[in-house]
Amino acid sequence: GAVVSQHPSRVICKSGTSVKIECRSLDFQATTMFWYRQFPKQSLMLMATSNEGSKATYEQGVEKDKFLINHASLTLSTLTVTSAHPEDSSFYICSARGREGPSVEETQYFGPGTRLLVL
Amino acid sequence: GQNIDQPTEMTATEGAIVQINCTYQTSGFNGLFWYQQHAGEAPTFLSYNVLDGLEEKGRFSSFLSRSKGYSYLLLKELQMKDSASYLCAVTLGGANNLFFGTGTRLTVIP
């Protein structure tokens, strides 16, 4: 099956700093990548959808100037949390979708997630 | 907005059967997914339903009723490793974005 990686897996930073999270599709070209946020004991909340070479589409309530998304190539998308604050501490998960595959289960492949702690 | 509801927590005994329900009220509907997520890990795909009826896959089965906006995931012969969160997610017409339900945390006890 397709593999999606995320880096780093865990990051601790000081309040006010920026953090960049990378999401890579390792063995397929991801035409679309999705970024989710998950707070403890809660479900995944879609933050934004990005298509290669175009601007990301943000969900309602997500600040696009705070969460910068870049999808510069078909295998890499980055999420930058700018001026991070303790309330941004969360589990960030990306997923990637390639061109239509042979089975519907290939809708999205999830990365392993990045746990962000802002002190 | 989209409403996708699941029970928050469930407990079941090893070897038993458990049914996790999901109800949805969404603007448009394409299909419904079930994912399993262990703490601190990414979700893994379990099943997909687009037509009414039951889809069976080993110990796991998933049911969908489009007219009722209702689905359930049935887990048989529960094992301790089945302790996890179970997320239902829907895709809406015209797009393949996943909208997740609240998730159900299942605890399997001996």
Would you spell out the secondary-structure blueprint of this structure?
The complex is a heterodimer of chains A (119) and B (110).
Chain A: E1 4-7, E2 10-13, E3 19-25, E4 32-38, E5 45-51, E6 57-58, E7 67-73, E8 76-81, E9 90-97, E10 109-110, E11 114-118
Parallel strand pairs in A: 2-11
Antiparallel strand pairs in A: 1-3, 3-8, 4-5, 4-9, 5-6, 7-8, 9-10, 9-11
Chain B: E1 3-5, E2 9-13, E3 18-25, E4 31-37, E5 44-49, E6 53-57, E7 60-65, E8 70-75, E9 84-91, E10 98-100, E11 104-109
Parallel strand pairs in B: 2-11
Antiparallel strand pairs in B: 1-3, 3-8, 4-5, 4-9, 6-7, 7-8, 9-10, 9-11
Chain-averaged pLDDT of chain A:
88
Order of helices and strands of chain A: EEEEEEEEEEE
Determine the number of helices of chain A (DSSP H or I, runs of at least 4 residues): 0
> Structural class of chain B, please?
mainly beta
The count of β-strands of chain B is 11
Give me the number of helical elements of chain B.
0
